[in-house]
Amino acid sequence: METITYKPDTGRQKMRRAFGIIFGLFGGGMGCLFFFGGILVLIITLGSGANWQDVWPIALMFSGGGLFGAILFLVIGGVIGFAGESEEVQLTGEALIYTQGKKGTTLPFNAIARLKGERRASGTGSGSGHWVVVITDQFESSVELDVPQGVFLATFDTLPILQALLPRLPDTVEIDSRVQNYLSTGRMTR
User: Fold this and answer.
1) Which pTM was predicted?
2) Which of 79, 90, 97, 171 is most buried when burial is the number of CB atoms within 10 A of its CB?
């Protein structure tokens, strides 16, 4: 069989990049407002002849916190916006190869033991999160492919990858019901 290479979905990458830029600029702008607000409080206090020793800790807290917040939001926005840029999935004649940056995982088709759908928490604790398909071999090495669903922007469109992968796998591979449902309906459900 010929090698099939899957790159990140460009539409999803553009949406991620736009969200990351907006997130970074909005948060960075708010941080700058706090930074300059703290400096403004200090200048007004000094100009009015008030005791600046009573105000400088508050002004410093606002300025320092605002500067830290601006940098933090800009960094997180950049991470969100450019995550997944260097990822790639390849289906060769013998193996599934998942590459992320310089790190790669190779799962030979004859060693793949199971495909399982799992829910990953988003960290909010509200029961929200996203689905992944975990492809595991007999040596417990695994590759996780995010499932795009709702507002979650996965790096790849996982369904075509799985549809091309299944004919290459041995009949002994265990495929759980969530993955089977995803393959037939395009939706991952509990």
Assistant:
1) 0.65
2) 97
Q: What is the mean pLDDT of residues 136-140?
A: 91
Q: Are 156 and 86 in contact (CB under 8 A)?
A: no
**Mean pLDDT along residues 55-60:** 78
SS (H, E, C) 84-126: CCCEEEEECCCEEEEEECCEEEEEEHHHEEEEEEEEEECCCCC
Decide: residue 178, CB within 10 A, 0-12 exposed, 13-18 middle, 19+ buried.
buried
Q: What stretches of the chain show up as alpha helix (H) in DSSP? A: 10-48, 52-82, 158-165, 177-185
CB 59 within 8 A of CB 47: no
Tokens 């090495």 label which residue?
141
Residue 184 or 153, more confident: 184
**What are the pLDDT digits (tens) for 6-37?**
887 777 777 778 888 888 888 888 888 888 88
Nearest Cα to Cα of residue 108 among 170, 171, 183: 170
φ and ψ of 78, to 5 deg: -65, -40
Contacts of residue 79, Cβ cutoff 8 Å, sequence gap at least 6: 20
